[in-house]
Input
Amino acid sequence: MRGLFDFEGEGRRAMGKLNDFSLYVITGENYHPGRAISEVMEEALQGGADIVQLRDKTSSPQELLRKAQELKALTRRYGVPLIINDHIELAIEVEADGVHLGQEDLSLQEARRLLGSSRIIGISTHAIEEARAAELGGADYIGVGPVYPTGTKPGVKPVTLDYVRQVAAEITIPFVAIGGITPGNVDDVLEAGAKRICAVSAIVGSSDVKGTARLLSERVRSSRGSVYAPKEIVVNGRPETVTARTVDQLIARYGLQGRKLVVELDGYIVPQDEWAATQLFSGVKIELVHFVGGG
Ligand SMILES: Cc1ncc(COP(=O)(O)OP(=O)(O)O)c(N)n1
Ligand SMILES: Cc1nc(C(=O)O)sc1CCOP(=O)(O)O
Ligand SMILES: [Mg+2]
Output
Protein backbone atom coordinates (compact mmCIF):
# COMPACT_ATOMS: atom_id res chain seq x y z
CA MET A 1 0.00 0.00 0.00
CA ARG A 2 1.30 3.43 -0.84
CA GLY A 3 2.07 5.32 2.30
CA LEU A 4 2.34 9.04 2.16
CA PHE A 5 1.75 11.62 -0.48
CA ASP A 6 1.89 15.34 -0.63
CA PHE A 7 -1.79 15.96 -1.08
CA GLU A 8 -1.33 19.72 -1.27
CA GLY A 9 1.11 19.34 -4.12
CA GLU A 10 -1.09 16.99 -6.14
CA GLY A 11 -3.95 19.45 -6.27
CA ARG A 12 -6.26 17.28 -4.20
CA ARG A 13 -9.05 19.13 -2.47
CA ALA A 14 -11.56 18.56 0.27
CA MET A 15 -14.90 18.13 -1.51
CA GLY A 16 -17.56 17.14 0.94
CA LYS A 17 -20.42 18.44 -1.15
CA LEU A 18 -20.42 16.13 -4.13
CA ASN A 19 -21.35 12.77 -2.71
CA ASP A 20 -21.41 9.93 -5.12
CA PHE A 21 -24.47 10.16 -7.33
CA SER A 22 -26.21 8.08 -9.98
CA LEU A 23 -29.02 10.10 -11.51
CA TYR A 24 -28.62 13.78 -12.30
CA VAL A 25 -31.83 15.50 -13.36
CA ILE A 26 -31.92 18.87 -15.10
CA THR A 27 -35.00 21.07 -15.25
CA GLY A 28 -36.78 21.55 -18.56
CA GLU A 29 -40.01 23.44 -18.08
CA ASN A 30 -40.93 23.37 -21.76
CA TYR A 31 -41.46 19.62 -21.31
CA HIS A 32 -44.20 20.04 -18.68
CA PRO A 33 -46.40 23.00 -19.61
CA GLY A 34 -48.92 23.83 -16.90
CA ARG A 35 -47.01 22.03 -14.15
CA ALA A 36 -44.80 23.84 -11.62
CA ILE A 37 -41.05 23.25 -11.72
CA SER A 38 -40.89 22.31 -8.03
CA GLU A 39 -43.75 19.81 -8.35
CA VAL A 40 -42.07 18.01 -11.25
CA MET A 41 -38.62 18.10 -9.69
CA GLU A 42 -40.00 16.77 -6.41
CA GLU A 43 -41.35 13.75 -8.30
CA ALA A 44 -37.90 13.26 -9.85
CA LEU A 45 -36.37 13.38 -6.37
CA GLN A 46 -38.93 10.89 -5.07
CA GLY A 47 -37.90 8.60 -7.92
CA GLY A 48 -34.22 8.76 -6.95
CA ALA A 49 -32.65 11.84 -8.55
CA ASP A 50 -29.59 12.50 -6.43
CA ILE A 51 -28.40 15.75 -7.96
CA VAL A 52 -30.49 18.52 -9.53
CA GLN A 53 -29.63 21.32 -11.93
CA LEU A 54 -31.62 24.46 -12.64
CA ARG A 55 -31.27 25.12 -16.37
CA ASP A 56 -33.37 27.92 -17.73
CA LYS A 57 -32.54 29.92 -20.82
CA THR A 58 -35.60 32.18 -20.95
CA SER A 59 -36.69 33.48 -17.52
CA SER A 60 -36.04 37.00 -16.28
CA PRO A 61 -33.44 37.41 -13.52
CA GLN A 62 -36.26 37.80 -10.98
CA GLU A 63 -37.99 34.62 -12.13
CA LEU A 64 -34.69 32.77 -12.14
CA LEU A 65 -33.99 33.86 -8.58
CA ARG A 66 -37.42 32.68 -7.45
CA LYS A 67 -36.97 29.28 -9.13
CA ALA A 68 -33.48 28.88 -7.70
CA GLN A 69 -34.77 29.65 -4.20
CA GLU A 70 -37.63 27.19 -4.60
CA LEU A 71 -35.30 24.45 -5.81
CA LYS A 72 -32.79 25.23 -3.09
CA ALA A 73 -35.48 24.65 -0.43
CA LEU A 74 -36.66 21.49 -2.21
CA THR A 75 -33.21 19.96 -2.68
CA ARG A 76 -32.32 20.74 0.94
CA ARG A 77 -35.38 18.76 2.06
CA TYR A 78 -34.15 15.78 0.05
CA GLY A 79 -30.50 16.28 1.00
CA VAL A 80 -29.23 16.44 -2.58
CA PRO A 81 -27.02 19.08 -4.21
CA LEU A 82 -28.44 21.89 -6.32
CA ILE A 83 -26.37 23.03 -9.28
CA ILE A 84 -27.10 26.21 -11.24
CA ASN A 85 -26.46 26.15 -14.96
CA ASP A 86 -24.49 29.09 -16.45
CA HIS A 87 -25.28 31.73 -13.78
CA ILE A 88 -22.51 31.72 -11.22
CA GLU A 89 -23.71 34.91 -9.56
CA LEU A 90 -27.11 33.28 -8.98
CA ALA A 91 -25.40 30.18 -7.55
CA ILE A 92 -23.56 32.43 -5.11
CA GLU A 93 -26.68 34.44 -4.25
CA VAL A 94 -28.82 31.41 -3.36
CA GLU A 95 -25.90 29.49 -1.88
CA ALA A 96 -26.38 26.64 -4.31
CA ASP A 97 -23.95 23.73 -4.09
CA GLY A 98 -22.32 24.57 -7.37
CA VAL A 99 -22.45 25.63 -10.95
CA HIS A 100 -22.37 23.90 -14.34
CA LEU A 101 -20.42 25.58 -17.13
CA GLY A 102 -20.03 24.83 -20.81
CA GLN A 103 -17.01 25.40 -23.03
CA GLU A 104 -18.41 28.80 -24.03
CA ASP A 105 -19.28 29.89 -20.48
CA LEU A 106 -17.16 31.47 -17.74
CA SER A 107 -13.75 29.77 -17.45
CA LEU A 108 -13.18 27.06 -14.87
CA GLN A 109 -10.35 29.07 -13.30
CA GLU A 110 -12.49 32.18 -12.87
CA ALA A 111 -15.40 30.10 -11.56
CA ARG A 112 -13.12 28.43 -9.01
CA ARG A 113 -11.80 31.82 -7.93
CA LEU A 114 -15.35 33.06 -7.37
CA LEU A 115 -16.77 29.92 -5.78
CA GLY A 116 -13.85 28.68 -3.71
CA SER A 117 -12.80 25.08 -3.26
CA SER A 118 -15.80 23.73 -1.39
CA ARG A 119 -18.43 24.25 -4.08
CA ILE A 120 -19.01 22.00 -7.04
CA ILE A 121 -18.00 22.98 -10.56
CA GLY A 122 -19.13 20.80 -13.47
CA ILE A 123 -17.83 21.30 -16.99
CA SER A 124 -19.40 20.13 -20.27
CA THR A 125 -17.03 18.24 -22.54
CA HIS A 126 -17.43 16.91 -26.05
CA ALA A 127 -13.91 15.61 -26.76
CA ILE A 128 -11.15 13.97 -24.73
CA GLU A 129 -8.92 17.08 -24.85
CA GLU A 130 -11.68 19.05 -23.13
CA ALA A 131 -12.12 16.30 -20.55
CA ARG A 132 -8.38 16.26 -19.81
CA ALA A 133 -8.30 20.04 -19.47
CA ALA A 134 -11.30 20.02 -17.11
CA GLU A 135 -9.73 17.33 -14.94
CA LEU A 136 -6.39 19.12 -14.86
CA GLY A 137 -8.11 22.44 -14.14
CA GLY A 138 -9.83 21.07 -11.02
CA ALA A 139 -13.39 20.42 -12.20
CA ASP A 140 -15.39 18.28 -9.80
CA TYR A 141 -17.19 16.40 -12.52
CA ILE A 142 -17.63 16.58 -16.27
CA GLY A 143 -20.60 16.20 -18.58
CA VAL A 144 -20.00 13.84 -21.51
CA GLY A 145 -22.34 14.41 -24.40
CA PRO A 146 -24.57 14.65 -26.17
CA VAL A 147 -24.34 10.89 -26.40
CA TYR A 148 -27.40 10.73 -28.69
CA PRO A 149 -29.28 13.32 -30.74
CA THR A 150 -31.64 15.24 -28.49
CA GLY A 151 -34.51 17.66 -28.90
CA THR A 152 -33.23 19.52 -25.83
CA LYS A 153 -30.23 20.62 -27.90
CA PRO A 154 -31.38 20.22 -31.47
CA GLY A 155 -28.81 20.06 -34.22
CA VAL A 156 -25.84 19.25 -31.97
CA LYS A 157 -23.71 16.41 -33.29
CA PRO A 158 -23.69 13.43 -30.91
CA VAL A 159 -20.36 12.38 -29.43
CA THR A 160 -21.53 8.72 -29.51
CA LEU A 161 -20.72 5.93 -27.09
CA ASP A 162 -17.12 5.95 -28.31
CA TYR A 163 -16.48 9.13 -26.37
CA VAL A 164 -18.13 7.63 -23.26
CA ARG A 165 -15.74 4.67 -23.54
CA GLN A 166 -12.75 6.97 -23.98
CA VAL A 167 -13.61 9.01 -20.88
CA ALA A 168 -14.37 5.90 -18.82
CA ALA A 169 -10.94 4.52 -19.68
CA GLU A 170 -8.93 7.64 -19.03
CA ILE A 171 -10.56 10.25 -16.82
CA THR A 172 -10.54 9.78 -13.05
CA ILE A 173 -12.92 12.50 -11.85
CA PRO A 174 -16.64 11.58 -11.98
CA PHE A 175 -18.35 11.98 -15.32
CA VAL A 176 -22.00 12.03 -16.22
CA ALA A 177 -23.26 10.84 -19.60
CA ILE A 178 -25.88 13.19 -21.01
CA GLY A 179 -27.94 13.75 -24.13
CA GLY A 180 -30.85 11.70 -25.42
CA ILE A 181 -30.60 9.11 -22.65
CA THR A 182 -33.83 7.17 -22.11
CA PRO A 183 -34.91 3.89 -20.48
CA GLY A 184 -34.52 2.36 -23.94
CA ASN A 185 -30.81 3.11 -24.37
CA VAL A 186 -29.50 3.56 -20.81
CA ASP A 187 -28.10 0.02 -20.67
CA ASP A 188 -25.88 0.74 -23.69
CA VAL A 189 -24.58 3.89 -21.99
CA LEU A 190 -23.81 1.95 -18.81
CA GLU A 191 -22.22 -0.84 -20.82
CA ALA A 192 -19.93 1.78 -22.38
CA GLY A 193 -18.63 2.59 -18.90
CA ALA A 194 -20.86 5.38 -17.55
CA LYS A 195 -21.49 5.16 -13.81
CA ARG A 196 -23.71 8.25 -13.69
CA ILE A 197 -26.30 9.53 -16.11
CA CYS A 198 -28.10 12.79 -16.62
CA ALA A 199 -31.42 13.44 -18.31
CA VAL A 200 -33.90 16.19 -19.01
CA SER A 201 -36.68 15.18 -21.43
CA ALA A 202 -36.87 11.47 -20.59
CA ILE A 203 -37.67 12.37 -16.99
CA VAL A 204 -39.35 15.76 -16.77
CA GLY A 205 -41.24 15.14 -20.03
CA SER A 206 -42.52 11.77 -18.87
CA SER A 207 -46.16 11.20 -17.96
CA ASP A 208 -44.74 9.34 -14.92
CA VAL A 209 -41.82 11.45 -13.73
CA LYS A 210 -41.27 9.53 -10.51
CA GLY A 211 -41.54 6.12 -12.17
CA THR A 212 -39.12 7.02 -14.96
CA ALA A 213 -36.61 8.50 -12.52
CA ARG A 214 -36.89 5.37 -10.40
CA LEU A 215 -36.39 3.09 -13.38
CA LEU A 216 -33.32 4.99 -14.60
CA SER A 217 -31.81 5.32 -11.16
CA GLU A 218 -32.28 1.61 -10.44
CA ARG A 219 -30.69 0.70 -13.77
CA VAL A 220 -27.64 2.82 -12.98
CA ARG A 221 -27.33 1.56 -9.42
CA SER A 222 -27.78 -2.07 -10.31
CA SER A 223 -25.20 -1.81 -13.10
CA ARG A 224 -22.71 -1.02 -10.37
CA GLY A 225 -23.57 -4.30 -8.68
CA SER A 226 -25.18 -5.13 -5.38
CA VAL A 227 -23.48 -3.55 -2.41
CA TYR A 228 -23.33 -7.03 -0.83
CA ALA A 229 -21.62 -8.73 -3.78
CA PRO A 230 -17.82 -8.87 -4.10
CA LYS A 231 -16.62 -5.80 -5.94
CA GLU A 232 -13.69 -5.24 -8.24
CA ILE A 233 -12.16 -1.98 -7.09
CA VAL A 234 -8.76 -0.32 -7.32
CA VAL A 235 -7.05 0.35 -3.98
CA ASN A 236 -3.99 2.56 -4.11
CA GLY A 237 -3.50 1.70 -7.76
CA ARG A 238 -3.89 -2.08 -7.26
CA PRO A 239 -6.93 -4.03 -8.49
CA GLU A 240 -8.61 -5.79 -5.55
CA THR A 241 -11.74 -7.88 -5.03
CA VAL A 242 -13.38 -6.81 -1.80
CA THR A 243 -16.58 -7.57 0.07
CA ALA A 244 -16.46 -4.38 2.16
CA ARG A 245 -19.64 -2.38 1.53
CA THR A 246 -18.48 0.96 2.84
CA VAL A 247 -15.31 2.97 3.18
CA ASP A 248 -15.04 2.32 6.93
CA GLN A 249 -15.36 -1.43 6.34
CA LEU A 250 -12.57 -1.25 3.79
CA ILE A 251 -10.40 0.66 6.25
CA ALA A 252 -11.05 -2.08 8.81
CA ARG A 253 -10.19 -4.75 6.24
CA TYR A 254 -6.72 -3.18 5.92
CA GLY A 255 -6.37 -2.83 9.69
CA LEU A 256 -6.17 0.93 9.43
CA GLN A 257 -8.85 1.85 12.00
CA GLY A 258 -7.72 4.65 14.27
CA ARG A 259 -4.85 5.60 11.97
CA LYS A 260 -4.44 9.12 10.63
CA LEU A 261 -5.85 8.65 7.15
CA VAL A 262 -6.84 10.56 4.05
CA VAL A 263 -9.40 8.73 1.90
CA GLU A 264 -9.91 9.68 -1.71
CA LEU A 265 -12.70 8.05 -3.70
CA ASP A 266 -12.84 8.64 -7.46
CA GLY A 267 -10.94 11.87 -7.02
CA TYR A 268 -12.76 13.20 -3.96
CA ILE A 269 -11.56 13.43 -0.42
CA VAL A 270 -14.17 11.67 1.73
CA PRO A 271 -14.48 13.39 5.14
CA GLN A 272 -14.09 11.00 8.07
CA ASP A 273 -17.65 11.51 9.26
CA GLU A 274 -18.85 10.14 5.89
CA TRP A 275 -16.76 6.95 5.81
CA ALA A 276 -19.51 4.80 7.32
CA ALA A 277 -22.15 6.06 4.90
CA THR A 278 -20.04 6.05 1.74
CA GLN A 279 -20.73 2.90 -0.27
CA LEU A 280 -18.28 1.13 -2.54
CA PHE A 281 -19.25 0.03 -6.04
CA SER A 282 -17.41 -2.04 -8.61
CA GLY A 283 -15.08 0.13 -10.63
CA VAL A 284 -14.35 2.77 -8.01
CA LYS A 285 -10.78 3.88 -7.40
CA ILE A 286 -9.86 4.52 -3.80
CA GLU A 287 -6.71 5.87 -2.26
CA LEU A 288 -6.07 5.16 1.43
CA VAL A 289 -3.20 7.32 2.50
CA HIS A 290 -1.89 7.00 6.02
CA PHE A 291 0.59 9.27 7.63
CA VAL A 292 3.56 7.83 9.40
CA GLY A 293 6.17 9.29 11.74
CA GLY A 294 4.00 12.22 12.81
CA GLY A 295 3.49 13.38 9.17
C1 LIG B 1 -24.55 17.91 -16.52
C2 LIG B 1 -24.55 18.83 -17.68
N1 LIG B 1 -23.79 18.54 -18.74
C3 LIG B 1 -23.78 19.37 -19.80
C4 LIG B 1 -24.52 20.54 -19.79
C5 LIG B 1 -24.47 21.51 -20.94
O1 LIG B 1 -23.85 22.75 -20.57
P1 LIG B 1 -23.51 23.81 -21.75
O2 LIG B 1 -22.61 23.13 -22.70
O3 LIG B 1 -23.03 25.04 -21.13
O4 LIG B 1 -24.88 24.06 -22.43
P2 LIG B 1 -26.18 24.71 -21.78
O5 LIG B 1 -26.77 23.69 -20.84
O6 LIG B 1 -25.78 25.93 -21.02
O7 LIG B 1 -27.07 24.97 -22.92
C6 LIG B 1 -25.30 20.80 -18.67
N2 LIG B 1 -26.04 21.90 -18.57
N3 LIG B 1 -25.29 19.95 -17.62
C1 LIG C 1 -28.29 20.32 -21.63
C2 LIG C 1 -27.52 19.34 -22.42
N1 LIG C 1 -26.15 19.40 -22.53
C3 LIG C 1 -25.66 18.44 -23.29
C4 LIG C 1 -24.23 18.28 -23.60
O1 LIG C 1 -23.90 17.31 -24.26
O2 LIG C 1 -23.45 19.10 -23.17
S1 LIG C 1 -26.85 17.42 -23.90
C5 LIG C 1 -28.05 18.29 -23.11
C6 LIG C 1 -29.50 17.96 -23.22
C7 LIG C 1 -29.90 16.83 -22.32
O3 LIG C 1 -31.27 16.73 -22.42
P1 LIG C 1 -32.03 15.38 -22.78
O4 LIG C 1 -31.86 14.47 -21.64
O5 LIG C 1 -33.45 15.83 -22.95
O6 LIG C 1 -31.45 14.87 -24.04
MG1 LIG D 1 -23.88 26.67 -20.41
